[in-house]
């Protein structure tokens, strides 16, 4: 059964979503009290934007895992159709929450309660200004995504460099092992040649020994026969 990457990615999305919700609450609280352009408000807005950008990147990975399950079929991962639909609904719900937070970040802040003497013109900006905020948000989001991709590519490049170094070391070890095997093979051939020569000499020695023993036996038998003939003649 193939490995299902959904749960590992979903854990990251849940963590990022929780962090984004905490930053959203902090941003709304600061926006309701701090004036527009204050350092605290800008910091809270930038932190929320960065978290939303990272959350959207994680959500893309999660959606990709859901798409893989949908394309290959849930049965390959041991999933029912209801589980696959639940995952798709979860992705849609998280994406809607991201869009809502993004709209809140891009929305024009209302005047605080302490500025009753000011006109409501500050809270009714033209549509062109809203469009400019949206464009600025899009540019910042794209820049954050590019930085994230650059960081990922750097990590991949470092990993590939490490793998290339390991492959080079492995290749060097293979060459050394081949040389050692070649030397061993040469030693085995030399030993086999020496053993064959020794076996040949041993066989020759055995044949010579057998021939010598046969000659002595014949000579002894002849002597015994002659002695027996003499005894017969004399007796």
Summarize the structure.
By secondary structure, the chain is mainly alpha-helical. It has helices at 6-33, 39-72, 81-106, 127-234.
- Helix fraction? over 70%
What is the tally of helical segments?
Answer: 4
Strand content: under 5%
Order of helices and strands: HHHH
Which structural class do the helices and strands define?
Answer: mainly alpha
Task: State the end-to-end CA separation.
Answer: 107 Å
Rg from alpha-carbon coordinates: 46 Å
The best one-word shape is rod-shaped
Give the low-confidence spans.
111-127
Average the pLDDT over all residues and give the rounded result.
Answer: 76
Number of strands: 0
Strand count, sense and barrel status of the largest sheet are: none
Task: Note down, in words, how this protein is organized.
The chain has 235 residues and is an all-alpha fold. 83% of the residues lie in helices and 0% in strands. It contains four helices and no strands. The protein starts with 5 loop residues before the first helix and ends with a helix. The model is unreliable at 111-127 (pLDDT under 50).
């Amino acid at each position: 059964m193939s490995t299902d990457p959904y749960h590992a990615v979903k854990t990251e999305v849940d963590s990022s979503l929780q962090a984004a919700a905490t930053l959203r609450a902090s941003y709304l609280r600061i926006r309701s009290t701090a004036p527009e352009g204050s350092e605290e408000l800008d910091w809270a807005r930038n932190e929320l934007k960065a978290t939303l950008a990272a959350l959207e990147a994680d959500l893309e990975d999660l959606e990709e895992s859901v798409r893989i399950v949908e394309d290959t079929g849930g049965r390959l991962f041991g999933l029912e159709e209801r589980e696959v639909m639940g995952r798709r609904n979860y992705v849609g719900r998280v994406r809607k929450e991201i869009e809502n937070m993004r709209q809140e970040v891009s929305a024009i802040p209302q005047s605080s309660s302490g500025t009753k003497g000011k006109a409501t013109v500050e809270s009714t900006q033209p549509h062109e200004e809203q469009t400019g905020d949206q464009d600025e948000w899009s540019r910042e989001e794209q820049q954050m995504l590019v930085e994230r991709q650059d960081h990922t590519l750097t990590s991949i490049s470092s990993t590939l460099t490490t793998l290339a170094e390991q492959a080079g070391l492995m290749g060097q070890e293979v060459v050394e092992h081949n040389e050692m095997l070649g030397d061993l093979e040469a030693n085995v051939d030399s030993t086999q040649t020496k053993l064959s020569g020794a076996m040949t000499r041993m066989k020759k020695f055995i044949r010579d020994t057998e021939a010598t023993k046969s000659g002595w036996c014949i000579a002894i038998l002849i002597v015994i026969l002659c002695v027996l003939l003499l005894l017969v003649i004399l007796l």
